[in-house]
Amino acid sequence: MKRYFKDIFQSIWTVLQGMKITGLHLFTRSCTLQYPSVKWELPERSRMRLFNKIEDCIGCGQCVRACPVDCIYMTTEKRNKEEPPIFAADGTPIKLRVTQFDIDMSLCCYCNLCTYPCPTHCLVMTPEYEFAVQAKQDFLYRFAKDEPQAPPKPAPSPRPAGAR
Amino acid sequence: MEYLRELLTQQVAGYDQLPEVLQIFLPMLLACLLCLGLVAFIPLVAIWGERKVSAHMQDRLGPMRVGGWHGWAQTIADGVKLLLKEDIVPAQADRLLFKLAPLVVFAGGFAAFVVLPFGESFIVSDLNIGVLYIAAISSLGVVGIIMAGWASNNKYALFGGMRAAAQIVSYEIPTVLAILTVVIPVGSLSMQEIVRAQSGGVFNWFIFQPVTFLAFWVVYLGTLAEVNRTPFDIPEAESELVAGYHTEYSGMRFAFFFLAEYANMFLVSALATTLFLGGWHGPGFLPGPAWFILKATALVFVQMWLRWTLPRLRVDQLMHVSWKVLLPISFLLVLAAGTLALWREGSP
C-alpha cells in the first residue's frame, strides 16, 4: 500500500521535472539558422567547388592523374618556339597550351587530392557551395580559354569531355 | 439560442411577423454556423500553436515562412494541400464505413460544442443534462475510430481502432465519476448551473475546493486519454502502428480526423474549464467568452506541453493507470463529495 502511493507521487514528481525541462527549453534561444536568408560563414579552407586559375596552369596533368574519380579532363598542345614566352605567377615557364580543362563537379568527390600536386597552386577548392543546377551537364565547368592551333592529335586525356 | 432569437426580434424589423417555424429555425441555423466556424477555426490555430510549441521546446523555430509573421498561414496552406489531394479508398476496404468514419468522428466533437457555455448567454443550448450529454456525445468518436480501423482492412488500423476503444472506454469511467464530484455539490447537470455555482471570486472555483481539487486532475488525465493525446496516444502510436486507425486515410478524410483531434482537445479543455475553472467567470476587464477561451487555451497548452515532454505509455501501463489508480481515486472522491454534501446539508 505504501509502495502504491509512493509510485503515484514519484510519477507525478518525475512528470513535473520533465515539464520543467521542456518549459525551460521553450524559452531557450532557437538554434535554427533560417537558411536562404541567413547563411553559415564557411571556413576559409572549406572543400567545396573547384576552381582553376587557367592563366597559371602549366598543363602538367598531375591533377588528372591524382583524381580518384577521373573527373578532370585535360587536353594540351605544345606551344611554338616562336611564340613569346609566358610564365605562371610563380615564374614557372608555360610550355603547353591548355586547350581543354573541364571539371565535372557532379563526379567530384571533394577529396582535395588534385590540389596538392599542382606545382603552381592554380587549382584550388573554394568555399562556394551553392551551385545546384537544373541539368546534369551544367555541372561540367570549363576553364580553358585557348583555342587549339595545331591540327588536333589523338586525345591524350583518359576520358574525353562529355563522354560518360 | 433563446438569446439569439430575442436579439433577432429586437434588431431585425418584422422578424416577429415571420412564420413561427422560421422564427425558431433561423436562430438554430445561425448558432450551428457559429459553432461550425468555431470548430473549424480552433484546430487551425491549435495546429499552428502545437507546431510552434513543439518546435520551441526542441529549440527549433517551426513554420516561419507561410503568411509572413511566424508562418501563421501554414495550417491554411496545409489544409488547401489536403483538399487538393487525390481521394484514395483502398481496394479491399469497406467503402461505406471507410467514408462514413471521419464524419462520425468529426460529428461527435462538433455536436458536443452545443452545450459549451462560452458566456452568460453565449451558449447554443443550455440542456438540463448538459454534462451527461457531453459525456455521451464525445464517446461517439470512438465508434468512428473503430469504424475507421475496421473499414481500412489493415492490421495496423485495426489495432489502432481496438486500442482506442479499450482506452476510451476505460478512461471514461474515472472521468465521469470525477465529474460527479462537481455535480453533487451543484445539484444540477446543466453547464450554466455549474458555472453559476462557481461565481463570486476565484476561490469559489471548484479547483480550489477540497475534494474537487483532486477530481480536476483525474478529469484532466482521463480526458487527455480520451482524446488520444501523448502520453496516452497508443491508438495512433506512430512508432508501432504507422498511424493507427487513420493509416489508410489521406487527403480531406485524414484532415477530418486531424481536425476532430484538435477540436476534441479544445472540447475537453473547455469541459474542464466549465467544471473546475469557473467557466466564463473572471475579472471584469475582459468579457466572459474571452475568459472562457483563455482558460481553455491554457489547458490546451498544458496538453501540448505534456505531449512534448512525455513518452508513450505501454498498453498494460495504460490500463494500470486507469483501472488501478484513477478508478479507486475517483470512487473515493465521489464518496468524499457525497459525505461533504450531506454534512453541509445537515449543519447549516
Please outline what is shown here.
The complex is a heterodimer of chains A (about 160) and B (about 350). Chain A is an alpha+beta fold.
Helix content of chain A: 10-25%
What is the straight-line distance between the termini of chain B? Answer: 37 Å
Give the DSSP E fraction of chain B (strand runs of 2 or more residues).
under 5%
Radius of gyration of chain B: 21 Å
Largest sheet of chain B: none
Strand count of chain B: 0
- Coarse structural class of chain A: alpha+beta
What is the CA–CA distance across the termini of chain A? 77 Å
Compute the number of strand runs of chain A.
5
| Mean of all residue-level pLDDT scores of chain B | 83
- Give me the strand/helix succession of chain A: HEHEEEE
SS summary, helix count of chain B: 13
Report the β-strand fraction of chain A as a percent range.
Answer: 15-25%
Low-confidence stretches of chain B: none
Helix-residue proportion of chain B: 55-70%
CATH topological fold name of the domain at 50-142 in chain A: Alpha-Beta Plaits
Largest sheet of chain A: 3 strands, antiparallel
What is the CATH architecture annotation of the domain at 50-142 in chain A? Answer: 2-Layer Sandwich
Query: Looking across the biggest beta sheet of chain A, what order are the strands in?
Result: 2-3-5
Structure description:
The complex is a heterodimer of chains A (164) and B (348). Chain A contains two helices and five strands. Chain A is α+β, with helices and mostly antiparallel strands. Chain A has a domain at 50-142: 2-Layer Sandwich (Alpha-Beta Plaits). In chain A, strands 2-3-5 form a three-stranded antiparallel β-sheet, with no helix packed on it. In chain A, strands 1-4 form a two-stranded antiparallel sheet. Helices cover 67% and strands 0% of the residues of chain B. The A-B interface holds A 8, 15, 18-19, 21-23, 25-32, 34 and B 53, 55-61, 64, 305-306, 308-310, 325.
